[in-house]
Design a protein that fits this description.
Shape: globular
Strand content: 5-15%
Radius of gyration: 27 Å
Number of helices: 17
Structural class: alpha+beta
Helix content: 40-55%
Largest sheet: 5 strands, antiparallel
Length: 585
């Protein structure tokens, strides 16, 4: 007996998603084929169970998500029960790229099954325990998450349900580009990148957990207990841990152990799989960077499932942040000492102000600290905060209204709020806490006076899409944090601004035909889980402390210091050469 699953069995089973290093499709036929005692047959999608008896001995084997992780083979021959995870029947080699891994889960049962009449039948749809959403959210272990039953924002809830219901459900849209197979399954199809491609030939684009969809799925499951959210969380977390994280120490320090970006914007993945840049694109290529580093979802996955792999992945990504700060180029170390600044730059190597590079790095440090309690992570987060923000910053000089280059300062402020939450939880209202609080409120006050909706000025945007409407939710969240940590006099202003930007976001999405595309939908489900600002319990309404934090000091990266020293050395050499020439005359 043998059952071999060669492809997904879906209508797009021959998708360009499944190409080899030669650019040829690796699947040979649709679905699976089987033979039993000389009989043969075919089908589309199998989740087989094979049981064998010999006298009183009984053994069974099954693998959940068998067809989704094709190719796979399950066989019984010559008294041998065999599950082939990378079967020899495949038309081509099984290519594992540098830094990739693949984890499979399967079950072997010996003797009678005490759960189901058919041995291991429960593997196909196992029971899943969950806790009451109100209790889970009240623990505080998951941050400020509001149970769905207490959320009166029905317009937002309806928009979010598109992720798990109907033809726009993330599970359903896998069929568009056949996002299946051992390497792809679990990832989200980045359909927002394909809006200008013909429907009959959509771009192949992989999402690689941008904006932490794993965290969004985890929090939504906590809010209502719907297992569809949990399934998305489990599948994506498994994919990220195996394929999207660069498990190697053999590359440059700023790349090794990092998280690969999503497929480059508006470009077909081609043969790049989940490695961002296709050779056919005009981009020069590259690897992981701090601007694409998401750890919170994996941390929540560990909390909810006990998956050591997810916990280890958080610490690997946190280690990557610390490693990139040390710098790996021996020649630079001879000229200038670390830090390199790679963990805090955003858009430009010269910008180390509030942005998503620094925000993601701070967030990774905070998550690693929560998992381990090791002070070095919290200390690193505080170094990054002091480097990138100051209560007396010249905020106007940051040009934060330049949305294309500076939109992500809100990501940083959200991470700063998370830092304050952790310090408050630990009862540490020390100088660093006060520094961070004053910085957050200084920027919130500037935002209240100057910030505007992105789509009010579409001429300032390269692509004025629905994603910009969804990004307004970050501003609403920053004002929610300001309402929690601001003075009682300023709190009404923060609440009003939070509700304004929230309404602009939801209204903009509701009116956008493309509101259910992957990127805006992920932004929605990850940034609407906290209570509205008006319901936020003040965490610290004390007056602003009269405290002198000095003046902001500009950060100079390792590369900049090396360049200056080389320039000085070159000038000295030129001067010495000139003196020698003059002396010889």
């Amino acid at each position: 007996m043998e059952l071999y699953q060669d492809s997904s069995g879906g209508s797009n089973w021959q998708s360009r998603n499944h190409v080899s290093r030669h650019g040829r499709t690796t699947v040979a036929f649709r679905g699976y084929r089987f033979r039993v005692a000389g009989r043969q047959g075919r089908g589309w999608r199998a989740t087989p169970i094979v049981s064998a008896w010999s006298g009183r001995a009984h053994v069974s084997i099954a693998m959940r998500q068998f067809w989704q992780n094709f190719p796979k083979c399950l066989a019984w021959e010559r008294d041998c029960l065999r599950l082939s995870l990378f079967p020899r029947q495949a038309a081509d080699l099984h290519e594992i790229q540098g830094g990739e891994q693949k984890t499979h889960a399967f079950f072997i049962g010996f003797g009678a099954d005490a759960i189901t009449d058919e041995p291991l039948d429960w593997v196909r749809s196992p029971l899943c325990a969950w806790v009451d959403p109100a209790w889970a959210c009240a623990t505080g272990a998951f941050g400020s998450v509001l149970p769905l039953a207490e959320d009166a924002r029905e317009d937002c809830v309806r928009l979010a349900r598109a992720a798990i219901e109907g033809p726009t459900a993330f599970a359903a849209r896998r069929e568009v580009v056949d996002e299946y197979g051992w390497r792809h399954f679990g990832d989200l199809y980045a359909d927002h990148e394909s809006v200008h491609a013909p429907a009959e030939r959509p771009l192949i684009s992989h999402y690689n957990n941008q904006y932490d969809a794993v965290a969004g799925f985890a929090c939504q499951h906590l809010r209502d207990g719907d297992l569809r959210w949990r399934e998305l969380m489990d599948d994506l977390a498994a994919h990220v841990v195996d394929v999207d994280i660069y498990h190697t120490g053999e590359d440059r320090s700023e790349y090794s152990h990092g998280l690969f970006w999503h497929t480059a914007h508006y470009v077909d993945a081609g043969r790049s799989t989940h490695r961002t840049y296709a050779r056919s694109s005009a981009a020069g290529g590259g690897g992981p960077s701090a601007e694409h580093n998401y750890t919170t979802g994996l941390m929540l996955h560990w909390f909810m499932t006990g998956s050591r792999r997810s916990r280890d992945a958080v610490l690997e990504l946190a280690g990557w942040v610390l490693q990139m700060e040390e710098g790996g180029r021996a020649i630079l170390r001879w000229i200038a000492r670390p830090p390199s600044g790679a963990a805090t730059r955003t858009v430009s190597p010269l910008y180390h102000g509030p942005g998503r590079g620094a925000g993601n790095s701070i967030n990774a440090m905070l998550d690693a600290f929560r998992l381990t309690g090791e002070a070095r992570y919290l200390e690193a987060a505080e170094r990054f905060i002091r480097r990138c923000i100051h209560p007396r910053d010249d905020i106007a000089a940051r040009a934060l209204l330049d949305a294309e280059r500076r939109w992500s300062y809100t990501v940083f402020l959200q991470a700063l709020g998370k830092y304050l939450d952790i310090k408050r939880e630990r009862g540490e209202r020390d100088r660093m806490y006060r520094y961070a609080r004053c910085s957050l409120l200084a920027y919130a006050d500037w935002m209240a006076a100057h910030e505007r909706a992105y789509l009010d000025h579409p001429e300032a945007l390269e692509f004025p899409t629905e994603t910009w409407a969804a990004q307004e939710l970050r501003k609403a969240d920053v004002f929610r944090l300001a309402a929690a940590y601001g003075t009682s006099e300023r709190r009404p202003v923060y609440v009003e601004r939070s509700e304004y930007f929230y309404d602009r976001a939801i209204g903009g999405l509701r009116n956008a035909p493309t509101r259910t595309l992957t990127r805006p939908l992920v932004l929605l489900i990850t940034n609407t889980v906290a209570p509205p600002a008006r319901l936020t319990v003040p965490a610290d309404a004390s007056p602003d402390p009269v405290e002198d934090f000095g003046h902001p000091a500009p950060f100079v990266s390792q590369r900049q210091r090396a360049a200056r020293r080389l320039a000085s050395a070159a000038a000295l050499i030129m001067a010495a050469t000139l003196l020698l020439l003059l002396a010889a005359l």
